[in-house]
Amino acid sequence: MTNVLALILRQLRRSAAAILISAPLLAADAPKNVLLLVSDNHSARDLGCYGHPQLATPNLDALARAGTRFSHAYATVASCGPSRAVIYTGLLTHANGQFTHGHSYHNGVLAKDVTTIFDLVKKGGYRTALFGKTSFDPRAGQYEIDQVETRVGRNGPGQAKLAEEFIREGGNRPFLIAVTTLDPQPTDQPADVRRRAAGVKPPRELDPARVVVPPHLPDRPDVRVSLAEYYELIERLDAGFGLVLEALQRTGQAKNTLVLAFSDQGAPYPNGGYSQYEPGVHVPLIVLSPVARRHGVVSDALVTLADITPTILEWTGVKPPPYRLHGRSLLPVLEREHAEGWDSVVLSHVMHEVTMYYPMRTIRERRYKLIWNLCYRQPWADASEVTRWSTWAETWRRGDKFIGKRSMEKYIWRDPIELYDLQTDPEEVVNLADEPRFAETRRALSEKLLVRLRETGDNWLERYQLPMPGEQAKIGVMSPPGYAPDRRRGKAN
Fold this sequence. Notes:
alpha/beta, Alkaline Phosphatase, subunit A, nine-stranded mixed beta sheet, four-stranded antiparallel beta sheet, 14 helices
C-alpha cells in the first residue's frame, strides 16, 4: 500500500529536477485540486512519523516523507463540530458562530453571513465532495457540496471508491474532496463486541497488556483496553487513507493535487480531549504539495487548523470571502524547517455540548502556554461519552485523587488563569500563574492574547476581563468602554 507514496515521491523528485532547468511544474491549464484527509479525535503523538513507538502507520509516514510534517499544529478548539467549522471557514469559534455541535439537540450552526471553503471554491468552478463525518447542520447557502455520503465514516475502501468515481466523473474539472473518517475515536466497547460489529477490520489486533499508556492517563486494565481500540483504529484509518491516495494516483491527478492530512482535535480522553491541554489540541498535520522542491521537511512553525482555508484559497486562486480570515496560508512555509513569525497560536473554545458551556481562550508560544478559563467558578464537565467511558467513570467510581498526573480537584475546578512551562512541565500540572517570578511572562502573554481576541472580534470581552498578575477576576460586571471589539466592525476587525 505504500508503493503509491513511493511513486508520488519519485514523481515529485523528477518535478523538482524540472524546476532546476526552468521547466514548469504544472501545465497552465492543469486543474489545481485539493484532497483533505481528516481523522477524528487523534492526537499528534499517535502516529509513527510523530514518534509513537508502537503504531504502524506506513501511509501517513510515507506522506510525511514526501511532503511537510508540522510538529506544532493545533486545533483551535477541541470539539468536532466547532473545530470543523474553523477548518472550513478560517474563522475562530467565537467569530464563526458554531459554538457547539450541529445536532438538533445542540443546534450549533454557522453565523448566517459566514461562508465555507466548499462554497467559495464551488463559485470558482470547483466540484466538491465530502465522504464521511460532517459535523455540521448548514443554513441555506452553506455547505452546498455537490456530493455528500456519510455512511462510509469508518469504511476506508468505500471512501476510496467514492473518491475515485467522483474524480473520474469530473473529467478535467478541478475538485475539492474531503475524506473524513470517524476513526480513531474509540467506542469503548469490549474487544469481542466491537470487532464483531466492525465492517472493515483493522490491519491487526493489539494486546492491551502491551500498549503504551500516555502519562496523562491512569495505567489500568480498562484504560489499556480502550487504548488498544484507539490504536487499532489509527492503523485502520492509515490503511484507508492509503487506499484514497492509491485512487488519486490511478486517476492521474496526484501531480495536480494538494493533499492535507490532519485531525480535527486530539484523542477523547480525560486530561486532553475537549480541553485546551496539549493532548486535546496538539494534532497531526501533513501537507503534500505537488510543486514543492523539497520533501520530507519537518516544520516547527506554530500553525492551527484555521490555516487550512487560507491555504486552499491560495492554492486554488479562488476569491476569498469579503471579511478577513483568522489564519494564513501554509504554502509559503512548506519547505522551511524554521519560519520566522510563526511562534504563537491562539485557541478559542465555547462549549462542546450545550450542557458543557465552559469558554476558554488560550495562547501557546514556544515555551509557555496561558489558558484563560472565563467561567472558572463552575465545574469542568467532560463530554457525555467521556463520562460514560471507563477511563473517567472508573476513576470516579474508585474515588481516585488523581487522573494521570493531575489531581481530580484541579481537573474539575480550574484556576481562572493557567500558565505552564511546557519545557519543564510538558504534562501541564504545575500552574505558574500566581508565581511572582513569572508575573512578567503572564502579563506579556495576556497582552498578546487580548490583542488577538480583539482583532478577531471576540465579543465575550464585553462581559469578561482577562485578569492580569495580582488582579482578581471580575465577576458579574460589564467591561469598560473600549475593552471589547466593536460589534459593528464584524469579522473584519
